[in-house]
Amino acid sequence: MARLAEYMAQLATILGEPASVHFVKLRRGSTGIVHTVQSEAVPKVRERAEEVRRGVAPRDALRAYETVNKMLKSDNGVGALKESTDAVIIPFPGREASEEKFVAIRERGTIDGEVIRVGGPHKWVPILIESEGETFSGCWADRVIAKQLARLIFEPVRLYGTGKWDRDSEGKWILREFVVEKFDPLSGEPLSEAIGRLRAINAFKGSTIEELEYLRRGPPEKQNGGH
């Protein structure tokens, strides 16, 4: 019963709208928590669940999702949040999730990329960044910084902050969370053109692109948060 209560608490956090989501019963067979949502709250609950599935929900909901997966893995189980039609809204891979060699490594660093989306009504605002063909959806900023970043939509920036990274069994680093502390706008000018202008005034004479990139961003292993 205690373990069931833990699952129900995390599910309630994932769904949100605590005054409108009600426990109904347990389904027979493998544990199934049946709940109902008051009609006026259905759109909000459905939107929040979709945001959890896409990884852009409020931080408390995403943490609850991670907690459920960890619990299922510990209990050697899998799960899914389904509608009454049995359509899966959020899958919980649990024991079927791939093994990770390194989990939750925190490191201060930077992420260079283009601001794709800034939005959300909560205290911590999700920031979507595209960097080198990859989209990072785990970036967060307070409202003050988010408002400033919103003015730079589709512009290149450098984010400074603390990141939380996982490394999977194949050695790929995955960004779980990056809390933005400050940022700098970046020029969209290609590095080769900038070097050409500098050489035209005899600045950094003889420097290579690699040397200037090192001065600009540091060692390769520390670029984009170390992933």
Descriptive tags:
227 residues; elongated; two-stranded antiparallel sheet; 6 helices; five-stranded mixed beta barrel; OB fold (Dihydrolipoamide Acetyltransferase, E2P); 2 domains; alpha+beta
Helices and strands, with pairings:
Layout: H1 2-15, E1 21-27, E2 32-37, H2 42-54, H3 59-74, E3 79-82, E4 88-92, E5 100-118, E6 124-131, E7 134-142, H4 143-150, E8 156-168, E9 173-185, H5 191-200, H6 209-217
Parallel strand pairs: 7-9
Antiparallel strand pairs: 1-2, 3-4, 5-6, 5-8, 6-7, 8-9
Helix pairs in contact: 1-3
Mean pLDDT: 77
Which structural class should the secondary elements be placed in?
A: alpha+beta
Instruction: Give start-end ranges of low-pLDDT stretches.
Output: none
The largest pleated sheet is described as: 5 strands, mixed, barrel
String of helices and strands: HEEHHEEEEEHEEHH
Provide the gyration radius in Å: 22 Å
Number of domains: 2
Between the first and last Cα atoms, what is the distance in angstroms? 41 Å
CATH class of the largest domain: Mainly Beta
Number of helices: 6
Percent in strands: 35-45%
Q: Determine the fraction of residues in helical runs and give it as a percent range.
A: 25-40%
According to CATH, what is the topology of the largest domain?
OB fold (Dihydrolipoamide Acetyltransferase, E2P)
Q: What is the β-strand count?
A: 9
Shape: elongated
Query: What is the CATH architecture annotation of the largest domain?
Result: Beta Barrel
Strand adjacency order, main sheet: 5-6-7-9-8
Name the CATH homologous superfamily of the largest domain. Answer: Nucleic acid-binding proteins
